[in-house]
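Progress against Task 2.4 (sequence-to-structure conversion) is shown through the following example record, which the project officer requested during the mid-term review.
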Amino acid sequence: MMVTGANQDTIDVHQHLLGAPLIEALGRRSAAPRLISRREGWTFRLAGEPDSILALEATDAELRRADLEADGIDRALVALSTALGIESLPAAEAAALIEAHHAGLEELPVEFRGWGAVAIAEPDPDPAAIDAALDRGCVGITLPATALSFKRRLSQESRWIARPRPKCWKRYFFRTMQFMMEE
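Structure tokens generated for the chain above:
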């Protein structure tokens, strides 16, 4: 999805790009979700899904940055793919992989910003984890569709929505949060 911000930047608000820390963490796992190294890239092994291939080029931030430039896109917001099921893992497993995702976001070129992720194995995500993701510079958080029952708590905890962010990104965070809270 492409949008134009107040400063007329063109922003792709939803891309997936696995950073080196997350690739390494998924590669060390013996259970799904995991990555299995192959000569030409990686194989994703996910619970209940057929294996799929992740090409090496798909993990190269500099190639992705060049693609953005070629497509006339000024910025891209990178999200953890909720299809991987990382957020739904037991809390300790999820926390380690989410930390790897956030660390990878911090290594991306300046044209990228990131959506944070939080563990959802508990009835509600930990408010401190949400705050920590925002404090690290994430523009907001993404949640798997199965977590949307958590919307009531978001509406009660408006401080998560009212955090100061750059104007063009704040607007998209608000829209995302409003969409998630709609019935």
